[in-house]
Amino acid sequence: MSARSNILNKLRTGLAGSIPRPDDFDERLVTEPWQYAPEDRVMRLRNLMEAVHTEVHQVRSDDWPEKVAAILAERELGNLLHAPATVHGQQLAVHWEQSGSHVQLLAYDRPVEEWKEELFWQVDASITGTVGAIAATGSLVLWPDRHEPRLMSLLPPLHIALLKASEIEDNLYAMMQRQNWSAGLPTNLLLVSGPSKTADIEQVLAYGAHGPKELVVLILEDA
Amino acid sequence: MSQRIPVTELTGGFRDRAEVALADGQLRTNFRTAMDSLMKKRADAFPDEEEREGLRELGNRIKARALSRLPDLLEQLEAKLTDNGVQVHWAETTEQANEIVHGIIQARQGTQVVKGKSMVSEEMEMNDYLAERGVECLESDMGEYIVQLDGEKPSHIIMPAIHKNRYQVARLFHDKLGVDETDDVNELIQIGRRTLRRKFMEADVGVSGVNFAIAETGTLLLVENEGNGRMSTTAPPVHVAVTGIEKVVENLRDVVPLLSLLTRSALGQPITTYVNLISGPRKADELDGPEEVHLVLLDNGRSGAFADAQMRQTLNCIRCGACMNHCPVYTRVGGHTYGEVYPGPIGKIVTPHMVGLHQVPDHPSASSLCGACGEVCPVKIPIPELLQRLRQENVKSPAEGPKVKDGGAKYSRKERLIWRFWRTLNSTPALYRLFLWGATRFRKLTPKHVGPWTQNHTAPVPAKRSLHDLAREHLARNGGQ
What we know:
Number of domains of chain A: 1
Strand order of the largest sheet of chain B: 1-10-7-4-2-3
CATH topology of chain A: Rossmann fold
CATH class of chain A: Alpha Beta
Number of strands of chain B: 10
Low-confidence stretches of chain B: 1-10
Distance between the termini of chain B: 67 Å
Strand order of the largest sheet of chain A: 1-12-7-4-2-3
Number of strands of chain A: 12
Helix content of chain B: 40-55%
Low-confidence stretches of chain A: none
Structural class of chain B: alpha/beta
Number of helices of chain B: 22
Strand content of chain A: 15-25%
Order of helices and strands of chain A: HHHEHEHEHEEEEEHEEEE
Shape of chain B: elongated
CATH superfamily of chain A: NagB/RpiA/CoA transferase-like
Largest sheet of chain B: 6 strands, parallel
Mean pLDDT of chain A: 97
Number of domains of chain B: 2
Oligomer: heterodimer
CATH superfamily of the largest domain in chain B: NagB/RpiA/CoA transferase-like
Distance between the termini of chain A: 59 Å
Radius of gyration of chain B: 26 Å
């Protein structure tokens, strides 16, 4: 007998004579306490994210690349990992071209194995999109794909995320429903609620444990 | 000077270790400070009692529903994960689970493993198993890393190194990593970051646990703050997740309340920094992520607990650690005193099914039954009730057929006879009167030392006259009014 059938048999014996419990999931319990007026959503998200050391800026969809340049200049960073095949990646590249920025634009255009050393140690910052955010918990929703791979939001010490104000949902349940997550999830879906942190020594909060030391969110107010 | 007590150096049972821990001022300060802070954080995270209680009830129902269909859900999970390209393995024992993990590593000729935090891998003692076979298995959660570096075991399921203060960590890093001694926590964390980043890059295999396995979509959900979980599950070419069979839930929406209960109960956070939902290995056109993803489903006594409708509730546990944070016993004796993987109240009710009551005979009674654990449990496991049940199982005679693994560990014929005598004495009026007569007249003969009671109390001495006598006299004097 295999381990699988032994385990399943034992469990089935344990259940003999009982009936499955009904599905009485009450969605009100996870939605009603977490609803906000549209104009309050951004503020709620902002407050929660700032409370965990996230830098949040409200910008416009035509001038955000400038803000990115300013953020990098402030920190005197030398390069930025972007996704050239995305709309925002192209917008950024155009701005870089026009402004003659000396910050090097890097593209995640080959498998990780081909440039692991560089990706792990030499990338200063990255910029990715998001597919929305959750006001209740102050979380960004990232849906990594071929163009914006998983490690883009994890390895660089600074991660800049673009968020459309119109894509902020009240709570996780509403987000799942709107985007119909149960119909199909990507290889790796992520909720990101601040820069990497730990409190493992004396419960003293320290940022930049293994992931980004800094998270900057640019909220596109008119998008 | 504080005294370090690595669990590996400890001998004897719970009682002996408790005595050492109770006398360790530094250890007690470290735990008291941490537990006070965690209790406050949880309370602050649930400001609305009605909301909290509604959510706990929902959490309990979701787990009860999942358990009521557990074998079906496990099959559904397996089918979905397989469709998604994840390889599913089953293990009845920790030995089998270790063999499976080692087999996967060998197939890739791997020598280096990084591990995100996983309590199931602690059950398996995976680090030791792999080390004996020439594979380095490095903990990457900061707390776990500290504990591993010092040759210790975690003392808390969420905060593994909570028994240490910054100075102890500083000295450890200095001794083991050759860095300058610093008491700056930020600097200590950065030392860990630099050391472990190289390991993430080089590792052949990443190992993680699972917080919730979702049958509906074939998804493994992991929560964490550090990013080491994401690193372990993304950077190496192979990801192996190990989990207990009780972690499966039916639907994706079921994790919404469970996630909220978990992070708020554990750390008082509305959510952890990262919630990582993994539904498959790297697709053909993707540029990163593991090429292989494996899930090892471990039983290790869980099906034994499952067979008993009352003890089945132990499988509701979502491993938040709130019960230990609120436990007056845990706070005083610390995690290592329990001598097992899962300390505190939850440890006391899950461990017997894994290792048998013979190995942990004192666990069920190391509780004041104050009820704090049951009150804060996010999935409403009636921990005090289960502790009482285990106490009964613990003293059952072989003829009474104890239902928990190695039940009857504390059965004693002598104790049973004493109680039988006591019962007869109290339920036979003539005998009781005779006893009273003797006890009041020969009161000076009662022993001065009666076990642990007289460590802190004076021995009880019967009064000169019994209450019955006094009452009778009173009634006679007052004419029976």
